[in-house]
Amino acid sequence: MMGPAHSLSGAAAWLGAGAAAAALDHPMPWPVLLAGALICSGAALAPDLDHRSATISRAFGPLSRALCGVIDKISESVYNATRSGGERRRSGGHRTLTHTWPWALFLGVGFSAAAVFGGRWAVLVILFIHMVLAVEGLLWRAARVSSDVLVWLLGATSAWSLAGVLDQPGNGSDWLFSGPGQEYLWLGLPIVLGALVHNIGDAITISGCPILWPVPIKGKRWYPLGTPKFMRFRAGAWVETRVLMPLFMVLGGAGCLVALGVLG
């Protein structure tokens, strides 16, 4: 799928998680619901860091483009080193390592650890990165015609404001993990969820997605999971823009209302 659809699916997924948390009698404070939806929306772009023309590869200028090149080479090397005998050698890493569950888990654990051990500035950096990505994904038309500096300023002010709200007692810095020093440990959850939702979205397109690597399926370690082929579509097709994106909006809105206790 394309960036806007990935971002919408990420936001909808976290709002759905908020509804589930409310049903399990562990509701999210509204700042956690809002911040998590934006983080998940941004994280849903992250697996495409192995693609030079992807939204995330352009989001932070030369820094993200350079990182994209590194990730692409790492992904290519891991694929070629672990492919089975029936899988051909590749000269690019797109839709390999970064489109798997181990990578999603790695990102979530890494960002959670950074939030816990890095203190407030680490939290601000994590929020900033994902706020910029959320702006690029959700407001992609406006972001495309704006300067990068304006997008970064919006991301920075959003991160600062959200951190200030979350830090207030009862607003969710210690949601789910309330032990001493565990503030913001939950930040990794929307990051994992966003990456997994991205992979599921790619799995319903023509190429499929090797989400379950390194588990061998039909003799292949990089087996591209997906829906039956007659149900798949090309990225950017009308199914994505006219069916899936409106559906994500409706599901996200319903999840938000349930999470906030307005419905259910």
Tags for this entry?
264 residues; 61% helix; single chain; 9 helices; mainly alpha
Q: How many β-strands, per DSSP?
A: 0
Largest sheet: none
SSE string: HHHHHHHHH
Helical proportion, percent range: 55-70%
How many angstroms separate the termini? 32 Å
Structural class of the helices, strands and pairings?
mainly alpha
Beta content comes to under 5%
What does the model show?
This protein is mostly helical and 264 residues long. It has 9 helices and no strands. The longest helix has 38 residues. 45% of the residues are buried. The model has no long low-confidence stretch (mean pLDDT 92).
Summarize the structure.
It is built from 9 helices and no strands. The chain is an all-alpha fold and 264 residues long. It is globular, with a radius of gyration of 18 Å.
Produce the secondary structure layout:
Elements: H1 3-23, H2 30-43, H3 55-59, H4 62-82, H5 101-138, H6 140-145, H7 148-166, H8 188-203, H9 238-259
